[in-house]
Amino acid sequence: MAVTLPEPVLAQYERFSLYNSPYPAHDGGCAIDLYPGTLVDGRTTAAPSPVAGTIRETRTVRAPPKPYAPEHDHLILLEPADSSPLAGLTVRILHVEPSVAADDVVERGESLGRLVRAGFFAPWVDNHLHVGVRGPEQNPYRASGSLPIDLGVSVRSLAWDGTGRVVSSGDTYAVLDAPVHPDPGTGFVGVRADGGGVLDGGLPHYDGGGVLERGDDTDPVVSLNGDRLGVADGRTITWDDVTVMANDEPITGLSLFCAQDGDFGAKLICPERSFAVGERVRVRVRSSDRD
């Protein structure tokens, strides 16, 4: 059984990803990260509720120890309203310090509290709500085991030749000016794989990724600009043993996601290197055992 998140749920967020995470909860696209947007410092704290409903419970949970983040996070369990397409299920939300409590009724888009950065976050990851959906017979407290998520929106694939100029950078990442969203705010876009479909995930710094909006009869080998990335089983990709190269030097990887904002562009994950704003970059993906 899969659940579909309809357009009104997804449209209130600037970005989303089903696969761009190292955690088993996202395996097979069984959870989604929803990014409300950014502030001047790049870290929004807004946490709009994905659906209307009643808060069932909030609790504090342990997070992986990281030197730059607290060792606790927060879990919100929300029972969707009878009018919701998710009625009868439980929505499981992480990374929000709640301003709500059990039995509170919230509308879709109403604040649940304040986004937080716990030890689940790599330093290059923007603030977001982690959302999973559970059936009535499932344990809502387990980290994995949520229902597969289907998208109630189309995602437009954008061809990208692997090049661009750096428009912003931080200690662990750089963002390029390509590909460009052709009409920001009018729908979601993502990087196109050779042969069709939209790439999603951390290549290759997380174990696998996804390819959305791709026919089941398409060649299971997934590539980008002729560079083989891995093999797809349905929409889920197992990455090959590959290395992302930027200007012929290795970097940690590429962050691939879906976005509707005007700042969309390829995101390089590169804590081992720095790129200057305005610098031109060419990205290729090479087999790690290539001579």
Q: Report the end-to-end length measured between terminal Cα atoms.
A: 45 Å
The largest pleated sheet is described as: 12 strands, antiparallel
- H/E series, N to C? EHEEEEEEEEEEEEEEEEEEEEEEEEE
The strands making up the biggest β-sheet line up spatially as: 18-19-20-17-16-23-25-14-13-26-21-22
Radius of gyration over alpha carbons?
Answer: 19 Å
The rough form would be described as globular
Helix/strand/pairing category = mainly beta
Mean residue pLDDT: 94
Helix content: under 10%
Question: What key attributes describe this structure?
Answer:
291 residues, mainly beta, 12-stranded antiparallel β-sheet, 8-stranded antiparallel β-sheet
Summarize the structure in words.
The chain is mostly beta strands and 291 residues long. Helix content is 1%, strand content 42%. The protein contains 1 helix and 26 strands. The chain has one helix spanning 7-10, and strands at 3-6, 15-17, 32-35, 53-62, 72-80, 90-94, 96-98, 105-106, 113-115, 129-134, 149-152, 155-158, 163-169, 173-176, 188-191, 198-203, 208-212, 221-224, 227-233, 236-239, 242-246, 249-251, 253-256, 258-259, 267-269, 280-287. The chain has a 12-stranded antiparallel beta sheet with strand order 18-19-20-17-16-23-25-14-13-26-21-22, with no helix packed on it. Strand 18 and strand 19 form a beta hairpin. The longest helix has 4 residues, at 7-10. The termini are far apart. The mean pLDDT is 94.
